[in-house]
């Protein structure tokens, strides 16, 4: 599989590049960074700190290298992500996107792209997070109408969007298990007089220090509660999962794929 990684100096792009460089079935074609960065033109291995040079460069123009790849993995910014999507569709290249913070209208464009390219969008590429999502679906199907559901998510001080894309996905899974839409039942934080309304899903977002990622879902009952929690100690689990998604997508026909398909959880 011939792979392009965007944002190879970023925390996720760097780790994805490192994971891909160790993978025997992957050939890295290029890294793509924003125009004007001081690492443009340098060896991708040096930029992503893989411990060795890879013999390919980081460029600032995806169009100049895209025809040489099979798959693009994009964990960059929402602005760059939309540009990558447009190029992938134009050149009929498979795309794995893990960037978060897109509007509903922007997400609709990713859905539309699946009619012409293999498209996999995953707010979280951790294997255990996605197993947790399956557990949330099971629990909510069984007790969702009875439980008070609250989500507490924690990330580092640099996290741009709140709630996290992962916690939104968790909320959507649970809302759908109850036959509802998340937009209709989500409550984001509380202040002052705000008694809990039955059937809602509460969101609470913490941002502090360099916390990698932590998500806890509480199912509250009278006299007892169930907590399902995932903690990541670093971002390597997400990078490995993203690379697995790229390998999965390489030989697929155009369509909308999820990490549940990759992990055989669907």
Q: What would you call the shape?
A: elongated
Number of strands: 12
Task: Indicate the CATH class of the largest domain.
Answer: Alpha Beta
Q: What portion of residues belong to β-strands?
A: 15-25%
CATH architecture term of the largest domain: 3-Layer(aba) Sandwich
Ranges with pLDDT <50 over ≥5 residues?
none
Q: Largest sheet at a glance? A: 7 strands, parallel
Structural class: alpha/beta
Rg is 19 Å
Per DSSP, the total helix count is 9
The CATH topology assignment of the largest domain is Rossmann fold
Please write the string of helix (H) and strand (E) elements. EHEHEEHEHEHEHHEEEEHEH
Query: How many domains?
Result: 2
Function: Catalyzes the conversion of 4-hydroxy-tetrahydrodipicolinate (HTPA) to tetrahydrodipicolinate.
Subunit structure: Homotetramer.
Binding site for (S)-2,3,4,5-tetrahydrodipicolinate: 165-166
Subcellular location: Cytoplasm
Summarize the structure.
The protein is of the alpha/beta class and 266 residues long. The chain contains 9 helices and 12 strands.
Secondary structure: elements and pairs:
Layout: E1 2-6, H1 11-21, E2 27-32, H2 44-47, E3 58-59, E4 71-74, H3 78-91, E5 94-97, H4 104-113, E6 118-121, H5 127-143, E7 148-155, H6 165-177, H7 182-185, E8 186-188, E9 201-207, E10 213-221, E11 224-232, H8 236-249, E12 255-257, H9 259-262
Parallel strand pairs: 1-2, 1-4, 2-3, 4-5, 5-6, 6-12, 7-9, 8-9
Antiparallel strand pairs: 7-10, 10-11
């Amino acid at each position: 599989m011939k792979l392009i990684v965007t944002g190879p100096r970023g925390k996720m792009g760097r780790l994805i590049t490192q994971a891909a460089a160790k993978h025997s079935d992957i050939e890295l074609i290029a890294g793509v960074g924003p125009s004007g960065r001081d690492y443009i033109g340098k060896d991708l291995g040096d930029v992503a700190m893989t411990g060795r040079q890879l013999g390919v460069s980081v460029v600032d123009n995806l169009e100049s290298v895209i025809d040489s790849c099979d798959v693009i993995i994009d964990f960059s910014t929402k602005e760059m992500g939309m540009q990558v999507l447009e190029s992938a569709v134009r050149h009929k290249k498979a795309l794995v996107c893990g960037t978060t913070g897109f509007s509903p209208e922007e997400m609709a464009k990713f859905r539309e792209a699946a009619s012409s390219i293999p498209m996999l969008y995953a707010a979280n590429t951790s294997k255990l997070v996605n197993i947790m999502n399956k557990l949330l679906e099971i629990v909510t199907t069984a007790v969702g109408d009875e439980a008070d559901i609250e989500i507490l998510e924690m990330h580092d001080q640099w996290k741009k969007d709140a709630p996290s894309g992962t916690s939104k996905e968790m909320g959507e899974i649970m809302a759908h298990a109850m036959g509802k839409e998340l937009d209709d039942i989500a409550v984001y934080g509380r202040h002052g007089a705000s008694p809990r309304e039955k059937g809602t899903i509460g969101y609470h977002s913490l941002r502090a220090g360099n916390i990698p990622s932590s998500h806890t879902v509480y199912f509250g009952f009278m006299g007892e509660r169930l907590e399902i929690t995932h903690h990541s100690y670093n971002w390597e689990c997400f990078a490995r999962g993203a690379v697995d998604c790229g390998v999965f997508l390489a030989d697929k026909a155009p369509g909308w794929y999820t990490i549940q398909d990759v992990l055989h959880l669907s």
